[in-house]
Amino acid sequence: MTKSFQSIKGTKDLLPPETTRWRTVESVTHDFMGRWGYKEIRTPVFEQTELFARSVGEESDIVSKQMYTFSDQSKNSLTLKPELTAPVMRAYIQHDLARTGALTKLYYIDSLFRQERPQAGRLRQFHQYGVEAIGSPYPEQDAEVIALAYKLLQKLGVDNLTLYLSSIGSKECRDRYCQLLVDYLAPYHDKLSQTSQKRLKTNPLRILDTKDPEEQDILQKAPHLLDHLENDDRIHYESVKRHLTDLNIPFIQAHSLVRGLDYYSRTTFEITHPRLGAQNALCGGGRYDRLIEELGGKPTPAVGFAAGIERILMAMEKIEVIAEDTPTGVYIVAACDAARPIIVELAVDLRDAGITADFDTIRRSLKSQMREANRLNCAYAVFIGEDELRKNCVQVKNLTTTGKQVEVKTNNLVNYLQNPD
Ligand code: HAM
């Protein structure tokens, strides 16, 4: 037997009618972003591996174990993009987008690749929409980005959102805090997992993300980063909170919202949905004021977020938001073989006139064609038999309301369907 193929583990075919729901999310997103002043950017599917190592961080889970990295024939190390902030910043610097204005607001809808253990809401190829607002260091920009993330989810019909907000301060205050954390954890060293013991040296903040109950217990009394913010960071954070309160966007202050990517400074946030289970983050983001400089650009502050579309659709599914598939308007039926070439032309003419039309190309019987018209929920069936061919006319049957059948001149069909009786 010939071997058949399966899609790769952690990837998903999107089939109709599911694709209609995707298109709904995409078109609402494009429309929404436009109204909020964001312009679309699209970047290539792969980049130099070093771009991600330098931005997301060598020690992050993404770079250390999840990237799809390969060498091309010229021995360049390339990586399928696991996230979009770094590629968008690369493009911003490469094309000197700063010259187009002091504030650059970009958005994207794209496919990403991470070699994670597949489970519900966690795929190896997944999709995000997101924004990057580049050029403003001020809290009103953070508030705008968070409000956009929140309100777009609401617009898509996802309710019951919980917004977690935090600040991880500047690099200097984070370094000082990390030392405090390392000192606090020193007496518990032997009780920590191997991963956390390693992180004590490489990236102590990530220990706060632990899922291990014993470690969570140890961390109960650990110092909080929020209590160690410098004055400017604190003022910035307080101001973001005030803006959100003024915007009536509820949030919960999180003491340890350490995101899995290393480029953040100051504001970090995540929005979760209760019904998603273990992978409950619908979106995450924050400020990253040093990244552009670290990637070779001029020092430029920026803030953004990305939301996982598969997870959004799961949340939408659970609350039963259903996007209707485009109904097929007219089914053209060949009631004799001589009519078959004619219905091809007629279908194209109707579509040219903006009418949704379909017809049979597998030479089925009249009865089967009628069954198909009903299966597709067509509003009208248009029949052409020998009589109609002779008289240059068609029979139009209303399938949904009246069931009435009328004879219409072929050259008047478009007009009739646009203004039926
Ligand atoms: P992230 O938290 O890694 O952030 O991803 C954002 C969202 O993408 C997550 O909240 C989740 O909904 C979705 N997501 C992540 N991994 C997977 C996966 N394996 N399967 C399905 N969905 C997933 C970023 O990517 C940052 N670039 C966000 C950002 C933009 N920060 C500033 N600007």
CATH class of the largest domain: Alpha Beta
CATH topology of the largest domain: BirA Bifunctional Protein, domain 2
C-alpha end-to-end distance:
57 Å
Q: Can you tell me the CATH architecture of the largest domain?
A: 2-Layer Sandwich
Fraction in helix: 25-40%
Strand adjacency order, main sheet: 1-5-6-11-10-9-7-8
**Structure annotation, total helices:** 15
Low-confidence stretches: none
Overall shape: elongated
How would you name the CATH homologous superfamily of the largest domain? Bira Bifunctional Protein, Domain 2
Identify every distinct bound molecule in the structure, by name, code or SMILES. histidyl-adenosine monophosphate
Rg calculated over all Cα atoms: 28 Å
Which percent range describes the beta-strand content?
A: 15-25%
Counting structural domains, the number is 2
Mean pLDDT: 93
Counted beta strands: 16
The main pleated sheet reads as: 8 strands, mixed
- Give the class from helix and strand content and strand pairing: alpha+beta
Provide an overview of this structure.
The chain folds into 2 domains: 242 residues, Bira Bifunctional Protein, Domain 2 (BirA Bifunctional Protein, domain 2), CATH 3.30.930; 87 residues, Anticodon-binding domain (Rossmann fold, 3-Layer(aba) Sandwich), CATH 3.40.50.800. α12 links the parallel β12 and β13. The chain is α+β, with helices and mostly antiparallel strands and 421 residues long. It contains 15 helices and 16 strands. Strands 1-5-6-11-10-9-7-8 form an 8-stranded mixed β-sheet. The termini are far apart. The structure holds histidyl-adenosine monophosphate. The site of histidyl-adenosine monophosphate has 27 residues, from β6, β10, β11 and α11.
